């Protein structure tokens, strides 16, 4: 059981699932407590619920309904064991981006599996707060990976943003990267950000984080090293020459002697 919703696609089969509105589930109340919102999307919403029916096969479920009444996404969000008649659930919207006009509904559902009737409470509409309280984080990386996969940062966080970059096989870390905050490229320095080409460690100082973060980096090809070889040669007169360094060019054509 996860906290996300799954998009509902068109179904062309003949099987049907019946869910009935049930009076024993009718006491559920639900309202949005808070949400994580960036300037571009809602990341998640936290919902307080009470008076749910808990026990075997009981869940808090949610769905998004389009303005035309079509169910666009659905998920069973939380299993309700006995004693969990009231509580809090967080719905992740990372896999589903609602359109303007979509409505979020929460309901108490008894899910009994395939070929069995389900029972549910009336739908409770939840209005999602939309005040921006987080910054988007975007990693635009080519032939590089990062160990920090966070997609947002709450406004007001006091810690520095840190990450470690790793070059893909066959590549090396670049000598420099690009860091943007609020769409403006930063100049590396003690008050903005640092990047260590040896370790791949990146640090963006908290004081410099005043908007959305974008980290841009591209893996570099390793520089080719010209191979060298040394050998001992003998002259036509039988004399022995000293060791001679022979340097091949990159294409292996011709040679120079030192």
Show the helix and strand layout:
Layout: E1 6-7, E2 19-21, E3 29-37, E4 42-50, E5 58-65, E6 71-79, E7 87-92, E8 103-110, E9 118-120, E10 124-126, E11 134-142, E12 144-146, E13 152-154, E14 161-167, E15 178-181, E16 184-185, E17 193-195, E18 201-204, E19 213-218, E20 228-231, E21 244-248, E22 255-257
Parallel strand pairs: 2-9, 11-19
Antiparallel strand pairs: 1-6, 3-4, 4-7, 5-6, 5-8, 8-9, 8-10, 11-13, 12-14, 14-18, 15-16, 15-19, 17-18, 20-21, 21-22
Task: Provide a short characterization of the protein structure.
The protein is mainly beta and 258 residues long. It has no helices and 22 strands. Strands 1, 2, 5, 6, 8, 9 and 10 form a 7-stranded mixed sheet that branches.
Report on this model:
The N and C termini lie far apart (71 Å). Helices cover 0% and strands 44% of the residues. The chain has 3 domains: 6-126, Sandwich (Immunoglobulin-like), CATH 2.60.40; 134-218, no CATH class; 228-257, no CATH class. It contains no helices and 22 strands. Residues 244-251 and 254-258 have low confidence and may be disordered. A hairpin with a 2-residue loop joins strand 15 and strand 16. The protein has 258 residues and is mostly beta strands. Strands 1, 2, 5, 6, 8, 9 and 10 form a 7-stranded mixed beta sheet that branches. The protein has a 5-stranded mixed beta sheet with strand order 13-11-19-15-16, with no helix packed on it. The chain has a 4-stranded antiparallel beta sheet with strand order 12-14-18-17, with no helix packed on it.
